[in-house]
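Continued from yesterday's entry.
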Amino acid sequence: MEFHSRRSGPLSVRRDGERLELDFPAMPGTPCEPPPRLLEGLGATPREVLKARDYMAVFEHEDEVRALAPRMDAIASLDCLGVIATARGRDTDYVMRFFAPRAGIPEDPATGSIQCTLVPYWAARLGRVRLRGRQLSERGGEFTCELRGARVGIAGHVVPYLEGTIEIGS
C-alpha cells in the first residue's frame, strides 16, 4: 500500500511476516542548545539535544529516560511537534519516549515517525544500519528499523483498531 503525503511524499507500507514495515524519509537532527523550557519540561538535563521536526534529548542511561516525569505545559510551549527522550538500551540498541502535548498526546505509546530521527542518530553512533528500539511508555512498543540512505524502514507488530472500505466518488 502507498500513501501520498504533502510533507513527506510517498509513504509505502508492506507486510513483513507478522509485522508491517513503513518506509519513511529520514529526518536527522541538528545539534542545538537546549531551550530552557525543554529542560524545565523534562525536569532533567540531557547530555545532548538535537532538533528536527521534534527536539531529541539524549540521555546517558535507559533509567533516566524511564524516570522522566515531564511537565506538559512547558513541553507544549516549545516550537516543535514534540520531544523525544532517548538513551542506549540495556537489551535493545536504544530506548525512547515521546511527548507531544501540542498535538493532544501527552505521551504517545508507540511512535513510528520518531524513528526517522532516532535511527540516523543511533546508526551513526553504533556503526550499523539495522537497529532495535523499545518505547518505554506504559503500553510500550518494539521497533526493528533500518537506515537506507535517505529513508528509514520502520517495522513492528501492530494492533488493528479499524477495518473498513473507502469508496471514492467521481
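--- second protein ---
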Amino acid sequence: MNNIIAIIPARGGSKRIPKKNIKQLCGKPLIEYTIESALKSRFLDRIIVSTENEEIAKISKDLGAEVIIRPDELALDITPTDDVVQNVLEKMKVNQNYFPEIIVLLQPTSPLRTTDDIDNAIEKFKNSKCESLIGVTEYDHSPYWAFEIENGLLKSIFGRKKFLRSQELPKLYRPNGSIFITKSDTFVKYRSFYTKHIIPFIMSYERSIDIDNELDFLLSELILKNKGHKV
C-alpha cells in the first residue's frame, strides 16, 4: 500500500451557488467528478469526503468514497480548509488508529482536474525532496497590470511608470485550488499545505477552473459539452 489518502472537503452551504457541491453539472453532481477521478488513481488508497451534510454524505458513499462527518462549526463560510483536514486526521487517528503517510487535498470545485493530474502530481511529490506540492496555473492576466484607485485616479500597485508589453512581463503563477499534497507529519507541523519548500504542479487554464460562481459553472459545463472532457 502507498498509505496515501485523498481528502475531499464538501460542506452543504454555499452563498453564491446553493448546494454547489452537489449541483448538477452535465448530468452529474459536481462532487462526482472529483470522487471518480480520485477512485481511478494508481496511488490513492482511501478517498475520504468531509462533510456535515447528509445528502452529500449519501451521494459520496454511493459513489464509493468514505465519509467523515464534521461538526457544524467546521462548515461555516469562514472555516479554513486546513481546520477540516486537521479534523479528518484527528478523527482517523482516534477512531481508526490510522495515520496516513501522505495526504492529497482535492477540492470538489475543480471538476476538470483529471486522474492523470492527480497521479502525476503525487509522483512528482514522491520523487522530490520538497515539503509540499501545490497545483498552479499561469496568470492569464498578469497582476503587473493591476491598479488601485487613489483619490479618483488609477495608481499602479507595483509603482510602474510605464506600460510594459506582455513579452516583457515575467511568467507568474497562482494556486488553482485543485491539488495540494504534503506528508501528514508535515501538515501537523505547519497546520497548512503552504510550507517553506513547495514545488509547483503546473496545470492548464482549462483544467484549473475553480468553480466559485455561476459563470465558472457555465464555463465548466461548456468545456465538458464541447470538448468531451474525460475524468
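The CA atoms of residues 33 and 111 lie 5 Å apart. The chain has one domain: 4-136+173-227. Will compare against the first tomorrow.
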